Amino acid sequence: MSSTQGxxxxxxxxxxxxxxxxxxxxxxxxxxxxxxxxxxxPRELINKMGELGYFGILIPQEHGGLGLGVFEYCLVxxxxxxxxxxxxxxxxxxxSFYRSVPGFGPERKEKVARMAAGDYLGAFAMSEPGAGSxxxxxxxxxxxxxxDWVITGSKYWCTFADRADxxxxxxxxxxxxxxxxxxxxxxxxxxxxxxxxxxxxxxxxPKIGYHGWKTWELHFDNVRVPAIDSPxxxxxxxxxxxxxxxxxxxxxxxxxxxxxxxxxxxxxxxNVAIDYANEREQFGQPIGKFQAIRFKVATAATEIxxxxxxxxxxxxxxxxxxxxxxxxxMAKYFAAEMSERVTSDCLQIMGGAGYTTHYPVERYWxxxxxxxxxxGTSEIMQRIISDRLMGK
Length: 392
What we know:
This protein is an alpha+beta fold. The protein folds into 3 domains: 113 residues, Acyl-CoA dehydrogenase/oxidase, N-terminal domain (Butyryl-Coa Dehydrogenase, subunit A, domain 1); 118 residues, Butyryl-CoA Dehydrogenase, subunit A, domain 2 (Beta Barrel); 147 residues, Butyryl-CoA Dehydrogenase, subunit A, domain 3, CATH 1.20.140.10. It contains 11 helices and 9 strands. Strands 2-3-7-6 form a 4-stranded antiparallel sheet, with no helix packed on it. α7 runs antiparallel to α10. The two termini are 32 Å apart. About 3% of the residues have low confidence.
């Protein structure tokens, strides 16, 4: 399949239309009201998203989810990001996070079903003050003592750490390996919602965007966690580089998701700019009549669609079971760079009005800037792409 028509089945068109209508009705009004004051998305919105199944798109039906693919996941994420990128991001706290749910049997099954409904969500703690793009530099350590893991170390950029039901913490569990990538494992730390885990100190990071929830710096001080793996993670640390490679492979989905969020933010900004250009008059006519404005819109629309088509291809590859780390990096890199450029141009179309919080284009601009950084910087994406093409 190489065309939008081929990708977009009737079911997918319905999923897209539903997410778009939900964003217009529910997400945009909250974003416009809360983002200027750095407010947090309410639990009521999360519950409504849970009712639509947005936290269980990737969770198999036998576990209570929708059992759909990355394509549908990214369709929904793009539409939600047209409203508020943070809302498009929170659905990741379910979906593939179900693999991190600990335990076995009915208890675990019940937790996964709650996750699919948005009632049991996770946070991910991978980055550290000294480990960002260099993921193999993780130093937060977990030591096995009897039936427990004991975690000590610091984490940075852990979004939703306070409101999540658990935190999946990437730790170094074995320093005897021959490579820096050896001996890494993701360990699940369950906790009360609304609190940090016992033994964890933390403070919110002051961000210029990505509002709607808090992002945390965390310090683990001999935090004791029951060593109960999920069936999908059991033995994950036995291979010398199994944990590291598994985390890297999961980034393909995360990078497609970031491409979707980038595209949604750019599309949202362009929609606002077009409406403004059709209404704002200068020199006796709407500014949308001037070629300089029209060409900016034409260029933005073309770049958005190019990024969207590349994302569709990557999603299809992932859903077909084919490795596409190079292509996922391309989609994330192209979409993120495009999003910052397009949102900036849309702000320029609106002139001084775009530089106020009266219009949401400044929100899209601030949030788009982050897409060039998280889930791997643009420079790391270029390194992945060039390594695949030219060798390391």
